[in-house]
Each structure stands twice: as C-alpha cells, then as structure tokens.
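Standup notes, structure subgroup. Blocker cleared on the FE2/S2 (inorganic) cluster input:
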Amino acid sequence: MQVSMSVNGSIEGRDVEPRMLLVDYIRDELGLTGTNIGCDTSQCGACTVHLDGQAVKSCTVLAVQADGATVATIESMAVDGQLHPMQQAFWDEHGLQCGYCTPGMIMAAVKLVDGDPDISDDAVRHGLEGNMCRCTGYANIVKAVMAGAVAMAGGES
Ligand code: FES
Ligand code: FES
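Run returned:
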C-alpha cells in the first residue's frame, strides 16, 4: 500500500506492506534510527514519537494508519545544532545511562510537561509510567524532566 506522511518536516512516501509498523517505517524505510525498539509488548516506550502532536508508541500504530499524518522523531528535536531544552536538561541532570530509553523518554516528556513548568515529581512519574528505563535511572530522569519543563517555559517556574 502507498503511504505518505510528513516526517520531521519532509514528505515521505513509500510502498509498504499493510502490516508494517510505524516504528519500522521510521527506522527501516527512512533510516531514522534514533527511535528505538525495546520490547515486543508495547510496554517500554522506547519507540515514542509525536504523531499529529501527540506522544504515541510507534510500535502500536501501523504505517498505513499514519498516512497523511505529521510525525516528529527525536532527530527533529535539536535545531541548528542546539539541543531542545528537554534534551539539554537530560544532559545536565544526568538523566541517562546507556541512553536506550532516552529518545522515547524525551519525546514523551516534551508532551507531558508542555506548558507546565510547575509539574510535580508525582505527575512526572505518573505521566511517564509507559516509559521504562532498564538502567533504572528514574530519579535523575524525573529531575531532568522537571528541569526541562522549566526550561521549555523560558526558565521561569
Ligand atoms: S518498542 Fe514500542 S513500547 Fe516497546
Ligand atoms: S538509560 Fe539505559 S535504559 Fe534508560
């Protein structure tokens, strides 16, 4: 089946198998390997991208379901070599160890905190329940997301 979608600002059309997952389309067809696959049970969140402005696990969506949609992956977050404030916060707060979960964490976190610099520790933990870190670095991840929330709001909380 023919699909076409905007990915990181480029229109990308391909002929795909009807059963192809969006995550495989992103990684295998478009070569955007920052989006990771960490499970086959839709539990880990490593594959999180933005689909029409919502954070979604791209292993739970078929590529054909995203036909005509707008997709953003972790590769679109840094602009002109400048990290997104949430990426910078993960760096500054040591919110990663091996880094495998990090792209998905960041894509989920950006949507979770958008517009709320005062998001609480509890709300971050609850909001990121669908994202697992096998290195179990959750304390620093929560700190990073809270710092990123403040930075995204312009440094005021
Ligand atoms: S790879 Fe999608 S939730 Fe784990
Ligand atoms: S930093 Fe290793 S899985 Fe999260």
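Discussed briefly. The beta strands are 2-7, 10-15, 48-51, 54-57, 70-72.
Next: hand off to the docking folks.
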